[in-house]
Amino acid sequence: LYNSLNMSKFVPNKVYLRGILLHYFIQKKSAAEAHRILVQTYGDNALSDTTCSDWFRRFKNNDFELEDKERSGAPKKFQDKELEQLFDEDPSQTLSELGKILQVDESTISKRLKGLGMIQKQGHWVPHDKVILLHDNARPHVAKPVKTYLETLKWEVLPHPPYSPDIAPSDFHLFRSMAHGLADRRFHSYEEAQWEKVVSSDGQYMSFFRRGIYVLPERWEKVVSSDGQYFK
């Protein structure tokens, strides 16, 4: 009983909790698992989910220094690719969370996001570009209610010739990559079978879909030049 009372009064400091994170990292647990254990053990004194993810990212980069690094008077600089990587991992992160990870203030993050043409929609950061939709002419996609709704969204719908599935990114990019990723594989956990890890070995699934869009014009040219003939 005495030990229980003493433990209930124990308030761990940040370095202590970071050491526990490092232990779970070495044990090959995920940041989410480590955060869940910290909350179960230390309650309100546990590190946040975002902070746990940030430290796991440092450990993966072979940065095992648990003490806070001294900050110079000059504001910290970061590359756009660092911000894009954070969006690949979780596009729902807030300005405050992004600022803490990159060690800059929210106004700096906000200015950089505007420069990248990013806006927040339904809690997710997305490119502020015109939406161009390419579907496969399936009946649900060309039904009148769907067409009417797409008009209200002011989306540009690209024409899709009948019986030409070769120009749909889902066919030539997504499904093919999934087929290669699933070939001769056996999964032992739900985490291993996450679809973004199947289609993209580095886990950067936003970059994966971006590549599929970039090769779309080249794919269209192949469809036209083949004169309706099938090709791989």
TrEMBL record:
GO terms for cellular component: condensed chromosome; nucleus; site of double-strand break
Upper lineage: Eukaryota, Metazoa, Ecdysozoa, Arthropoda, Hexapoda
Source organism (scientific name): Pseudoatta argentina
A single GO molecular function term of this UniProt record: histone H3K36 methyltransferase activity
Residue span(s) of domain Mos1 transposase HTH: 14-63
Pfam families according to UniProt: HTH_48
GO biological process, one term: DNA integration
Name by which UniProt lists this protein: MOS1T transposase
